[in-house]
Each structure stands twice: as structure tokens, then as C-alpha cells.
Amino acid sequence: MLQEVITTMRSAKRIGQTSLAVNKLAFRWLRNQRTHRETLPIMLRDTMQDLGSTYIKLGQLVASSPTLFPDEYVEAFQFCLDQTRTLPFEELEPLLEEELGARLKTRFKKIERTPLASASIAQVHAAELINGDKVVIKIQKPGVREILETDFQFLYFATQLLEMLNTKAWKSSMLDIVQEIRNGMLEECDFYQEADNIEEFDRFLKGNHIEHVAVPAVYRDLSTEKILVMERFYGVPLTDVDGIRAITTDPEVALVKALDTWFMSLKQCQIYHADLHAGNCMMLNDGRVGFIDFGIVGRLSECTWEGLMSFAVCIPAEDFDGVALALTKIGATRKEVDLKLFAEDLRKLWSQLSSDDLLDNEDPDSFWRQVTVSFSSISSRHGIRFPREFTLLVKQFLYFDRYIRLLAPEVEMFDTERMDIIGLGV
């Protein structure tokens, strides 16, 4: 009963915060009618950043969806893609004490107050246990789940209203997109699930006698739904070429082994890591490759798997008619697709990718965002909307392609031997 009262009070507080933010936005917009110093997209972006995790995620959606939103909004919201505010450790301490109780004093020797990393849902702090083990603590930001639920109730209503007012404006169901974001964020809030993901992947590694890739050990007795304590890894991001060469004289071999392992997990593990950006994929000091942060994982349906098989066979051969057909099998279509036109658009995008050199690009992350946006734009233009699992796969392919260009430019991502590993060889 007490918990229900607390949740209701938090929800009421959140509704009040949202109302206040909207009122401030309205006042700012009215004032700007006289000065014309700011644009509405910039003002709306700032408001969403102030409202926190849910709205930042939605801002990221706007930034990556040029087919759903005007160009000026897409451009303004690019800032949300890299924007996460850090909470002072003092705001996290009460949650740590509530979740761990006496264990906080009896098991931990020290906890670093400055975070190693911060995301919309959680922060990661380095720590040392009484027994000398070096660990990291992933701490959920206070009230995140309640805030998400309250925010999405409002967003469901707003989205339904927008779709009723202007159905033709949307290339795909905005309600479905909001639902996908909600489900993904709520899954990220369950650290028991993330611990399960890590241990599932660890069983896959050990079952296949893979020693060149590692995941952190989970301290189950110190972890809860909101706190995750893990072994600390030491190393450098997979994009730090100089740092990697200081660890190994043959970074290409390490990368190929990591790539083979990830591809193998698509078929032989119940989950695959779906967010291996440079911060989550490390060259460890002992020469292994470390996969960390299993908050976002993918699970392949049979339909997506069959489409992926065709996709992987057609891409190396630059058979874009085959690629187009494979993608239509994976995606949900709202109209009959002209495969010839779709294939030609994909061919143009591939040509653009081949001519761009990531090594000379001052902002490679921005480059890959544009690639993803272009792919999404082409698909939406042809009436295709892909399931979340395929979107996660494409994002991961782009990450690995970047690592290959940096460390092993002679390596082919979809080569015959690698496809044989997962049963895609022809």
C-alpha cells in the first residue's frame, strides 16, 4: 500500500514537471515571436532534454527519422544522440543503501564518486570490494521506471491524437514506434534480466570453448533489479588504434575472432549483443576482446533469420535485386513494393558507402548516423518498416564495419568462412 502511494505521488510529481515544462515552452515560444532568436525545433529539443530519459530517447527517434519529421527537427535533435546528463553521486546513494542495505558497508571498501559512464537509465561507478576485487556498479537512476510509465501514458494519448488528426502525415504507425521504445527501455530497467543476458552469453562462450572473447563476471549476491555489480574490465575501446597496438602486434586477429564469435552467437546463443559500440567493445589488457553492457540484446525470429541468410549471401555479390527481395521478407510492408526501384535505391546507397572513407571522417559517429538515416529513409519511401530485431542487426553491422576499416581493412565481414560458421555458406 505504501509503495502504491509513493508511486502515485511520483506520478503526480512527474505530471506536474511535464506540465511546467510545457508551460515554459509555450512562454518561450510566445516571447520568441517578438525576438525571433530561436527556432521551435531548438526550443522543443531543449524542453525534451530537461524532461530527461524518456524524452531524450524520443529526441533520438526524431534525429534518426527523416521520413517522419521535417528536416529542421531532424537536424536540431541530432544533439540528443550524444546527450546524457550525469547525476551527482549523492542522488544515487539513497538507492544504493535501500537496495544493498548492510552489504554496502560490509562488502564494499570504496566506491568512486565520479562515474565511468552515464546513460539515460543508469550510471556506472568503479568500486573495490573488501576482498580486493575491482568491480563496477551499474546504478539505476532514481524513479526511472515510474517516470517512464507516466511519460508513456501521456505519449500514448498524444500519439493517438496526432495520428487521428493527420493520418497521412505518418509513413508508419507512430503508436507502434512508441510501443517499441517503451518495451526496450523497460527491459533495460530490469538488471536481473541484464545479469541473465551476461550469464547466457558466458555459457555460450564456455560451451564453444571460446577464450579470446570475455564478458564480465556478475556478482549475483550484490545485484538487484536496480543495482548490477560486475567484474571490472581494463582495456581500450576498439576504435583506439594506438592503444590496441600497444596491447597486441596483431589487432586484425583479435578483431576477426571477436567478429566470428558475434556471428556465431546469432545462431548458437539465445541472445546476441545488440549494442557493441566502441564503449561496449574493448581490447582488454590481456589481449582478449571484452563485450560489456548487455542491456540491449537481440533475439532473432525465424523470419528475420531467413531474411538475414539471403541478405548475407547477396550483399558480398552486390546483388541488389536479391537484397531488396530479402529486405521485403524481413520488413512489414504497407503497400506493394517495386523491387526494381527499391534495388536501385539500395545500389546508390552502397555506392555512397564505398566512396566514403571513415578514416578521413572527422566525425565517424555522425557518418554512421547518416548511413542509418539514409537506409531508414529508403525503406520507408518504399513502404517497408523493419522489426526492432533487424534494426538492431543493421546497427551492429555498421559498428563492425567501422572496426574493420580501422583495424583490418582487408577483412570481408561476410566472407565465406564466416558465413559457414553460422550456416550461411553457399
UniProtKB/TrEMBL annotation:
This is Protein kinase domain-containing protein. PROSITE patterns: PROTEIN_KINASE_DOM. One of its GO terms (molecular function) is ATP binding. It holds the Pfam family ABC1. InterPro entries: ABC1_dom, Kinase-like_dom_sf, Mito_struct-func_regulator, Prot_kinase_dom. Residues 89-426 form the Protein kinase domain.
